[in-house]
Structure formats: structure tokens, C-alpha cells
Amino acid sequence: MKSPDLGKDLLGLEELSTAQIQLLLDTAEPFKEISLRAIKKVPTLRGATIVNLFFEASTRTRISFEFAEKRLSADTVNVASSGSSVAKGETLVDTARNLEAMKIDMVVVRHGSSGAARFLAQRIESNVINAGDGMHEHPTQGLLDLLTLRDHFGRLDGLRVCICGDVLHSRVARSNIWGLRKMGAEVAICGPRSLLPNAVEALGVTVFRRIEEAIEWADALNILRLQLERMQAGYIPSLREYNRVFGVTREKLERAPRDILIMHPGPMNRGVEIDSDVADGPHSVILDQVTNGVAVRMAVLYLLAGGSPALAEAAKG
User: How much is the pTM?
Assistant: First the structure.
């Protein structure tokens, strides 16, 4: 199964062209309508078998992919590292090759090591979709964030988007930076120096040291979770201090020169990087991001299976 437009796999947004990202976003549009139907299913991928291979804990991404697969009528199998042969020492490649011997068509993989999705894609014939690899990329999250921004503003070119918080550990940040810049947006980041990558300016972003500066500049804030599970001691003084200095609060937003769109990839640490009255406020599109995630993942699966945007529009009807 191969798309002439995307190639065999979706491993990251860094390697995609502007036209390929545009294709993915445009293809996701007709799939939104399917989720609004009484019967949320089309026969587009009937007969295809897709394995969700998750070596890291996940709720939103795994369930979103599963919804996307089932709404396209694919057969799905979920494999977690706990309770599988991985827990007995089987390698990533051995697991995938054994699954491929059962004649599967696609693998959706999440792994704690950067580059794991590419490593796998080079060794099996099935399509591979990266659902997050280490601190590298999370391309479908980046795409759903782009789609959400485009829905709200009607464009991406010229938008000012600031990614706030734990950029150092965030694969979402990297996919957003690559995707937004290729689509013509201006991108900034804001967070404590200890949570920003070294030589971050090489990514082509503006760096703000204070959240107030970011709020004054931005059209939209994409607020990242503090990934406490990836941190050793010393990154921040305390959660309370982080909230005071870098947390996005209603009081700080009220001083903004314009209404700012609020995004968060989830799960949220309420009262740390974002306050509840901001997360649940009138300018939050956090739940829209979740809804768009299913449509984007349907588009990725569909295009990698060789579908065309015209056929996606026809499937909607």
C-alpha cells in the first residue's frame, strides 16, 4: 500500500513539503463530517489490517487512531508493550516482523526512543505511522494543531504562534515548529532556559523569556505539559514557582492586546502550565483539537493506503 504523494510512511513533518502538509490538511476536511453522522463509518479501508503498537502509555493518541481506523472500516489490533512478548525481551523489529508475517497492512507505533519509527519503517514493508518517538516528533499531533489553527483563523500564513513550556522534552513542539514554519506561520517559543533545547534559535523560532512577552506577541498559544516523568531534579524550582512565572492565567491574558487562541495537546497539568479558567475559557480550542485528531488520522491512513482527496470527498457523501 503506497501513496504517490506521501511515500510509504509518515515519520515526521520535518521531511514533508508544504504541498504534502497541505494535502493532509485538505484531505482531513471531508473526514470531519463522518464523525457527525449517526453511523460514523465508511467502507474506505475495509479489508485492511492495522496494528497499533504502543511501547509507551497513551490514552488520547491510541484511542484517536483506533477511532480513525474503525471509522474507515479497517480491522485493528492493539498491542501494548506490557503483557506482550516485548516484556519478555523481544525486540521492536522481531515484534513487527512477527506481526507482518500475519499479513498486516499498517503499523502505528509509539516508542520512547527517538528514531524508533524510522528504524522500523526501514525494516518492514508495511506502512509505518509515527505516533510519537522519544523527543523527536509527533506528526499527527502537529497536523491536528495546524488544522485547528486553520479552522479558527482561515489561514496559517502569517499567523503568530507561540509554543509555551517544556519545549526540551516535547516531540509535539518539534512537529509544530516544522509544520507551522513550512505553512508560512511565525513561530516563537517561551519557557525557562532549562526547558529549552540547546541552539534552539537554529530551528528558526523567536525565543521569549517571559510569558507576558509571548502573550503580547502571539495570535495563539500552544501550551505544553510539563513532562515531569522525563525530568530529573533541577529543571524548575517548584510547580508553584513555574505557574507563577510561566503559567498561562486569566489575569495574564486579560492584559493581552488581542484575543488569543488557547491550545494544549493534553494531558493538562491544571494549575501548573495552564489554569482551569483558561483551559475551559471562551478562547480555548482544546476539545476541537481532540475532534480534529480523528479526522487528521483518518486522512493519514487513507492517503498512505493510496486514496486521493477527490475520493475522500466522495466518501463523505
Answer: 0.93
